[in-house]
Specification:
The chain is α/β, with parallel strands linked by helices. The protein contains nine helices and seven strands.
Length: 284
């Protein structure tokens, strides 16, 4: 028997895209998602925290009209049960977020029952040793190969593979009893029509999550399918720049896709669940 896919069906994603038309986006921006019944289950002794780490597609703070999906995720959770802590930082990769001590700060806060959503990829693909990559690039794959890169301030860094960095995040998150969730990157504005953006990054993330006992959600695919359902003209209205960063409406749509993916994880996955039944429309 094949494993149950970790994500909403195509029918559900198309229904989501239909629900999040322009009028619904305006309503969501005004008041958050529908205030439906909270997810079942007894209230925890303390509020669980969903930590989010990543790059500018997760956290842009409104600069130049840019917003990330992590900044629009909190309304999908019951605030009496769950706190969303968005620690993502623009311009970071799995390598630089770790090197700068940002992950160490998150790790120190983790407690049993918390979840950590980890989305890197946009800044990881730069070539190691290329100054234009700003010491963010990683080696491709999930192996144990290393390469040296000189740092501008002096010293040499041992650069590892994308999978090796993800492995460190997952092991660190699991150690105190938190649940790590690898999230594949949101697609670029011009790479959703044909094929799949970040196909390698997604495959590496899925494999590391499987190997290390974490969870994986395919946000690349979910957003791609929603974009295809909306069409080019509507998708263009979701971006604040030419290629990468979403505006408020785009961040809201992407956050809704994240919420849908989290709700559709298997029941045994011990992650906080979004409170709203956001996928209610039906389609043939």
């Amino acid at each position: 028997m094949s494993a149950r896919p970790l994500g909403p069906s195509r029918r559900k994603v198309l229904a989501l895209a239909a629900l999040l038309g322009p009028a619904s986006w305006r309503a969501l921006r005004a008041g958050g998602p529908p205030d439906l019944a909270a997810a079942p289950g007894a209230a925890p002794d303390r509020r669980t925290t969903v930590f989010v780490v990543g790059d500018s597609t997760v956290h842009s703070a409104g600069r130049n009209g840019q917003w990330g999906w992590g900044e629009r995720l909190a309304p999908w959770f019951d605030p009496g049960r769950v706190t969303v802590a968005n620690h993502a930082m623009a311009g970071r990769s799995s390598r630089s977020f770790l090197r700068e001590g940002r992950w160490a700060a998150v790790r120190s806060l983790l407690q049993p029952g918390d979840a950590v959503l980890i989305q890197f990829g946009h800044n990881d693909v730069g070539r190691v040793g290329d100054p234009a990559a700003k010491q963010r690039g990683v080696l491709p794959g999930i192996g144990e190969d290393t390469a040296e890169e000189a740092l501008p301030g002096g010293g040499v860094e041992q650069v590892r593979s994308f999978g090796a960095y993800l492995t460190a995040y997952l092991r660190d998150a699991r150690a105190p009893g938190a649940v790590p969730v690898v999230v594949s990157p949101v697609p670029h504005r011009d790479r959703w029509r044909d094929g799949m953006d970040f196909a390698d990054i997604g495959a590496w993330g899925r494999e590391v999550a499987r190997r290390e006992g974490g969870l994986f959600i395919d946000l690349t695919q979910a957003v791609t399918q929603a974009y295809r359902a909306l069409g080019e003209a509507e998708v263009d209205r979701l971006f604040a720049d030419a290629n990468t960063h979403t505006n408020d409406a785009g961040a809201t749509l992407n956050a809704a896709c994240v919420a849908a993916l989290l709700r559709d994880l298997p029941p045994a996955a011990a992650v906080p669940r979004p409170r709203a039944e956001i996928l209610t429309a039906s389609s043939p």
